[in-house]
Design a protein that fits this description.
Glycoprotein, Type 4 Pilin, 3-stranded antiparallel β-sheet, two-stranded antiparallel sheet, alpha+beta, 1 helix, 35% helix
Amino acid sequence: MKTISNGKNQGFTLIELLVVILILGLLIGIVGPKLIGRSDDAKVSAAKIQIESLSSALKMYKLDNGFYPSTEQGLQALVVQPQSGNIPKRWKEGGYLEKGKVPQDPWHNEYIYMCPGAHGDFDLMSYGADGVAGGDGYNKDVTNWETD
């Protein structure tokens, strides 16, 4: 606010307000799209990190027990000792995941686990943003056998 020598307050003019709004609009127009696209990149990175973490937990499970959990036992075998199928004799008390639960992928879907896998001892994947197998861009599957 500006003060005039006679002590009265004078507000912003309409032109000054329009200039400020124009500047803010330009900034949002330039910076906004760059920030919006980054959230999808972050989700893909988070899925890759979670898959690496789950892969490490599965390898620890195998070191302790001599085998990976079956497809039927699934990733839940990392948090709760399986009671059917090939029952682990030296299952680690407290499980193999730090938070005590199997995380969902960044798009709020379950990770897909298969053992034995078609690409290795086990296959671990997220179907990406669309939740459907295959796809391109952010819909592309994130897997433990492909690294980019």
